[in-house]
Amino acid sequence: MLTLSNVKKRFGEHEVVKGITLNIEKGEAFGLLGPNGAGKSTTISMICGLIPYQEGDIFVDGLSVKNNPQLVKKKIGVVPQDIALYPTMSAIDNLIFWGRMYGLKNKEAKTRAKEVLELVGLTDRAKDKIATFSGGMKRRINIGAALMHKPELLIMDEPTVGIDPQSRNHILETVKSLNEQGMTVIYTSHYMEEVEFLCKRIAIIDHGQLIASGSKKELCSRISGGTVLQLLADQVKPKFLEQLKALEEVENVKVDQETNIEVILQNNKDLLADIVLLSNKSGIKLQQIQLREPNLETLFLQLTGRTLRD
Questions:
Q1: Residues forming a β-bridge with 69
Q2: Which domain holds residue 285?
Q3: Which of 98, 225, 261, 307 lies 20 to 30 Å from 138 when distance is taken between CA atoms?
Q4: Are residues 39 and 112 both part of a single domain?
């Protein structure tokens, strides 16, 4: 459904995408991950034909984005991170408007808008203005707008940012259902659990390069070592973190939510005694210690040196 062949993009002298090659099959749910500034958004913009690329080519269902931009755009539905709706218009009028922009005739757009409202679970709010909607409801209509023309490829850029759990679950279940019905989905998110729930294959981009691609199992098999220590401390001191990083078998250390410390080990060597000794010397009380298998978050940190939310 989508092929990127040695695609490069420069802004002036700065190369932000450095020869990405990638294939996504029809009917696939594909996760695209990368820290901020990695080139992920630029890559998506090039796929959608919003910005040109200097080298290589991008094909959507066999059509070159460079040579057939209008035909390609008819095959793609885009859900941007920012809400692309008119707040003073009703939900159904927004959908009809975007349907017409995608080339649907008026009667067809009205019929499709009703179908989409049912799909996103907001039929009862059809005539209410977008300005009266919660953040989660706006995002559901934002997705609905991208579905008006029944695209073959749906590209979703952070579709669940800042919304309530109920709307988030509804969006995830809707996307999963669309994919199961045969729609190809490219999904980007800062929430790794969403990508794991939806996507069979995943690619990680950093510094404009594709640094890993494959299934969750294939990617996690690349992690050096096989143990992650999860520490819950009463406090975190910079010196203690530096001492942890200095231990010979420690691959990386990250702090999440102020007092959760994740220690990635290069192998299965038992460093528990050394870590407890360091914490005691630093005046830090470890309230909980847990061993777990490495996951995609671990791999991401190991490959990029950053967490997904950095």
A1: none
A2: 227-293
A3: 307
A4: yes
